[in-house]
Every structure is written in structure tokens, then in C-alpha cells.
Amino acid sequence: MDTNTIREIYERQVELVYRTAFLYLKNVEESKDAVSSVFLKYMEKPVMFRDQDHERAWFITVTRNWCKDVLKSSWKKRVDYIPIPENTENCTKEDRILEDVLQLPQKYREMIYLHYYEGYSLREIAHIIGKPESTCQ
Q: Higher-confidence residue: 74 or 109?
């Protein structure tokens, strides 16, 4: 795969990967690490995407799996993280809502984010997270 194609895919998906990672990890630095790791994985073993929806779903799934591995690691369990800042006076309404979403349990946070922020249908979300559609309602 040529450098220009990789650059185009990176530019299209970098924000999605970062936001998805932050949704799970709630940590800026680890979310940046996730971006690097996910794109490194893509560059090592490029995938031929059917279309941009397939591309988005692939990046969400790989990011989600990477984050789950990090969260399961014993290192992660021993480290305390800085919470999301309390000062929200300069935040937009959407930022404050996202902060509230981030406080929800993982199973709700993931589905709400994919539906309202990424625009996926319940059927698509069920496919991405590998659960029955009835579970996503």
C-alpha cells in the first residue's frame, strides 16, 4: 500500500480512533498510544476495505479491542489516573454531555457513543460490538 493511501486513511480515521480510545481509557496519553498502535497494526497488515463504512467499523473494532486489552492488563489496574477536569466553564454543551456519557458504565457508554456520536444504527452497533441487536436496545 502506498504512503499517500495510508496518509488519507489516517487523516479520515485519526479522530475516530482517538475518540473511541478516550471513550474506553479516559486518559489522553493512553488514547494517543492507542492511535499509534492501531495505525501501526494497520500499516503492518493493511486491510482492503470495501467502502468507508467498512473502514470506520474496522478502526472502531480494532481500537475497542486494543483498549480492552489495556484495561485488562495488570499494569493498568495498579496505576491511578487523573480524573476529567472539574472546571467546565469553557466547555461547550456537547463537551459536558460527553463528560456525562464517559461516567456511564462501559456497556452503556459504548452504545451511546457509537449511536449518537458516530451515527451507527442499532444493527451496526450490534455487529461492531459482537452482541445481539436486542442487547443494544
A: 109
Q: Which three cell numbers stand for residue 129?
A: 460490538
Contact 136, 121 (CB under 8 A): no
Give me Rg for the CA atoms of the chain: 16
CA dist., res. 118 & res. 54, Å (int): 13
Q: Report yes or no: 23 and 102 within 8 Å, Cβ to Cβ.
A: yes
H or E stretch at 6: helix 3-25
**Strands (DSSP E) found in the chain:** none
User: What is the pTM assigned to this prediction?
Assistant: 0.69
| Interatomic CA distance for residues 27 and 102, integer angstroms | 11
Instruction: Return the C-alpha cell found at 104.
Output: 456511564
**Cell, residue 59:** 478502526
For helices 3-25 and 52-72, what crossing angle results, to 10°?
Answer: 50
Structure-block grid coordinates of residue 69: 486489552
pLDDT of residue 77 exceeding 70: no
